[in-house]
Write a structure and sequence with these properties.
It contains 8 helices and no strands. By secondary structure, the protein is mostly helical.
């Protein structure tokens, strides 16, 4: 092989290696820290659901499964806050994050509420938690559908508004209160059993319905059947 052909071959080989390295780097960048936190939040959902669904008579006792479930749920909620801040401040917003971050939030709350509803340990609040979970489910399904319709119609990207953020905070607070009230709050404050659970569920349901109404009102032009 001539020196000229060797040089061409070496150049092609180097360019190919550089392209492969660039592709590897690009692939690596797709799973950035905010996206890893989103994935971690999704992974936590079935874990704390298991602790919520444990029967009252188990090797961990009655109190510790609820504490573990509440701690894991709180960690998941904190990753929701942190991944959004990191993505915006470090300019790490990706299509994966835009899709999965809101879905992870829904999995987080709905997973906890479904487990609470199914667990016999929370039987005193089951009648209300069933209705609350149903309302939350339909609201999230409706808003997600609105997002898809607006996006497919060439409309703006729908970001979470203030009412939606308040709704999320109340949902997180509601789950934590339900998990901890009977074993910590009521005993220390000597209040009626699940009093704060009923109160936070009522506030959460009101905020959930109102935030859904705001989305429908703001983007009705895209879903109006008369158009």
């Amino acid at each position: 092989m001539s020196d000229k052909n060797k040089n061409v071959h070496v150049a092609e080989y180097n360019e190919k290696n550089e392209d492969n390295q660039n592709n590897k780097n690009n692939r690596g960048k797709k799973i950035n820290l905010p996206n890893k936190l989103t994935i971690f939040r999704i992974i936590l959902v079935p874990v704390y659901m298991i602790f919520i669904l444990l029967p009252e008579k188990n090797v961990l006792g009655e109190i510790w499964p609820r504490i573990f479930a509440a701690a894991l749920f709180f960690i998941a909620a904190m990753t929701d806050l942190v991944d959004g801040l990191l993505a915006r401040r470090l300019n790490l917003v990706t299509d994966f994050g835009k899709l999965m971050d809101p879905l992870a939030d829904k999995f987080m709350v709905m997973g906890a509420m479904i487990a609470i509803t199914a667990s016999d340990a929370f039987a005193p609040v089951r009648w209300l938690s069933v209705w609350a979970a149903t309302i939350v489910f339909f609201r999230e399904f409706a808003v997600t559908s609105i997002r898809l319709v607006v996006s497919s119609s060439g409309g703006p990207v729908i970001a979470a508004n203030f009412t939606a953020k308040v709704k999320t905070v109340l949902q997180i607070m509601c789950v934590l209160v339900i998990l901890l009230e009977d074993i910590i709050i009521s005993k220390n404050l000597n209040t009626p059993r699940y009093l704060f659970s009923y109160m936070t569920m009522g506030l959460m349901v009101a905020a959930t319905v109102y935030s859904g109404f705001v989305y429908f009102k703001n983007y009705w032009q895209y879903i109006n059947p008369a158009n």
